[in-house]
Amino acid sequence: MSYMKLDLQFFAADEKTEKATPKKRGDSRKKGQVPKSQDVNTGFLLLMVFGGLYLFGGQMQVSLTEMYSKTFQEYIHWELTTESTAAVFLEITVEMAKILAPIMGIAIVAGIASNLVQIGILFTGEPMKFDLKKMDPIKGAKRIFSARAIVELIKSLLKISIVGLITFAIIWVNKDQMMLMSQKSVEDALVFFGNITIIMGLASGLALLLLSTLDYVYQRYDHEKNIRMSKKDLKDEHKNIEGDPLIKSKIKEKQRQMSAARMMSEVPDADVVITNPTHFAIAVKYDEKVSDAPIVVAKGVDFVAQKIKEVAKANEVMMVENRPLARALYQSSELDRPIDEQFFKAVAEILAYVYRLEKKV
Fold first, then answer.
1. The whole model's pTM is what?
2. With contact defined as beta carbons under 8 Å apart, do 23 and 237 qualify?
3. Which domains does the chain have, with CATH numbers?
């Protein structure tokens, strides 16, 4: 039974039940793993491109008509040579570039804008890196028959059905006018069918954009599900951020040792060591060139206090017993900082006593 409990605990720890941390989200983003709906791009692109056709359609028609007229009124009379063919090709290319430039510009802006709205600014080459796992036929088969693949299939069928229904409805509403186009001029017929095409494009783009809202919500849900973390993942991440507790304790111990060594090097220059006498030891130094008040250069309790007293004795630094003052200085004073004002009088009396004994005054 105990083995079964351990197994259950192990699987529970590995189960992806926790929300992703900011670090996990940042790492996923660097890898290009972000919630994104291609339908948003498609719908916005269609809407903007057909909107551009609606705005610039008349100008495009005039430019195409002029190019058509020039072809059959001027180019057709040119002598067929390499130079004339190159000239015609160059002129037609330039004219077509001028005609298509606004629409191409709108398409580029729409593509960039739709991505910025969804994922913001992101540059990463991770998705383009070669990965042998992507060529695994077993994983490929799993992706084909996965729940996500079924959802994508349903989405595609839904989009085709809606676009087809919109197209059919627009054609059905305008069927009578279409029948009458045989009685109209070619120019009138082209204008009519051009307008119908733009209307179908705008309606389809708007419908796809509305559908893409639902798809984006699903993509966000699926992304959040994929980047979920287990309790073990959270612990491992915390370890990586904060550091291994064992290593941290060793670092702290090393820092304590270095701090103690530095303190001990300051004790020989102290003027006096105020003791408890057994538990506390405070080394004080007064230098009017450095500070207006005495400075605590070393302090310690128990083992460290004994070491301070040993160093002081070895270097003939005077030690004075004052139990309440030693305890108060240890609790209230910081290393390499002047003592608090409330201790000035007591410490000054001790220093005066020491100076008298050492005949410094």
1. 0.50
2. yes
3. 22-121+132-238 (no CATH), 266-357 (3.40.1690.10)
